[in-house]
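re: that chain from earlier
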Amino acid sequence: MKIFTKILMLLLVLSSCDTTVQTGNSSRVMPNVTGGAGEVLVVMEDYIWESKVGDALKDILKEEFPALPQSEPLFDVTQITSASLDNMFKFHRSIVLVTIKERAEESEVTFRKNVWAKPQILAQIEATSLEELGQLISQNAERIQNFFIQYDRSRLTESYNETKDLEIQQMMAENHHIRLAIPRGYNIDVSKDNYSSVSIETPDFSQILHVYEYTATDKAGLQSGALLLQRNAFSKKYVKGPREGSYMTTSDAYPPVIYDIRKREMDLVEIRGLWELENGYMGGPFVSHSVFDSTRNRIVTVEGYVYYPNQKKRIKVRQLEAIIYSLEII
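^ sequence. v structure.
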């Protein structure tokens, strides 16, 4: 989780010269991408993939996704050789292209968009030797991982912005003076001045977003201990289990992970952890963003949590992340 932790603190600090994205010819009609969200195709010769250099790239892409009840990687990775890179694979949405060229001018990592399909991203890693390739991957681990994380999230956010539920938008604006990219498909469960909840409920899973706010005088209220106390208080009051006397609380089985983030000129605290039911047997992952709104002297928290028993939850959490990261104070 160490690379992922650094990335969340550096998301908007990385300079543009370090993350330049080169765009392909935008004037031509390009095919749509293939592959699903969270999938990365690595084009690398087998002898490199099976070496320590290949292991270093695997560690970057397959690092454990934080705060899930079951172990899941950040990305599902497929590796092929350059000889197998035909039209079918060229249309993949997320590609890492690794080459060793002894006559290359220099070893470098470049990031490109829409090379063979749209919307597509490609991280191209070119080195003059296997040793230099290993050094290059190690030195650019955060940039490579961050490139794919941000892409998946921003694509989802853009999609949600195009299909926003107008009734929910109005409710969030009136109740909490915030804007979130919540797409159609969510239903309003609770609508109050200091607490609102929307959800997608199916027989198999639940995805819930709730927003709560309370008075605060300064950013001292963003200390993690204070935020978790408020989380438990609001959850106890509003998130009830099916059994009498059961309610949501923060699980001690996995200590919450705290990140400080700077986004849209806001200082945010992100908390990732597990929830469980007091006097019950349900549980799952959650992720939240909290911000101090100095204009209204309050702290606002937007949290998403998932209930999806015995199933992988990474995609569900990423979908909630895409909404949470869209938070704007209005």
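Residues 164-329 form a domain with the Protein Transport Mog1p; Chain A fold (CATH 3.40.1000.10).
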